[in-house]
Specification:
5-stranded antiparallel sheet, globular
Length: 160
């Protein structure tokens, strides 16, 4: 059995030392109700490999171009970003609840638009001396339980 190394605390403890938050401050509340939505994720391909050789400023701009462009595209079609997870966005289409046709069409059209803007996105990156941005998109439809954290951010859990 290894001993706890107090001189080198875990990252979560280090982060808490520099904030007014404690481990117990993170709280979530579940709605207790399920609803079905089109839910998706769009993530960059090989971004870690690509950005390791970029300066912090260039790396930040690389992610910013991708994440902001995709978030704006989702918004244009009624999609809502739930969470940014590094080089990806978790999103859903609220209008797709209960199998509404408009919601499905918005989801399909939004995802197709994200595919179609690939060349434009690469041109924007190249104009700033950055490599082309490649990505993949996955979507599904099914039951989820909505939850909200204490800081008011929305999240969801899959319900089978």
């Amino acid at each position: 059995m290894s001993e706890l190394n107090i001189s080198n605390p875990p990252l979560s403890v280090k982060l808490l030392e520099h904030s007014s938050m404690s481990i117990s401050d993170y709280m979530v509340a579940f709605s207790g109700q399920t609803n079905s939505y089109c839910v998706g994720v769009i993530d960059m391909v090989d971004s870690t490999k690509i950005t390791v050789s970029l300066s912090v400023g260039k790396m930040s701009r690389y992610y910013q171009i991708f994440l902001n462009t995709m978030a704006n595209t989702l918004n244009k079609f009624g999609g809502r970003v739930i969470k940014n997870v590094g080089d990806s966005l978790l999103f859903f289409f609220p209008a797709s609840s209960k199998g509404r046709k408009y919601g499905f069409m918005s989801c399909l059209e939004g995802c197709l638009e994200m595919v179609e803007i690939h060349d434009h996105l690469c041109a924007c990156a190249k104009n700033e001396g950055l490599p082309c941005i490649n990505y993949r998109i996955s979507c599904d439809y099914g039951a989820v339980v909505l939850m909200q954290s204490k800081d008011s951010s929305l999240d969801m859990m899959v319900h089978h």
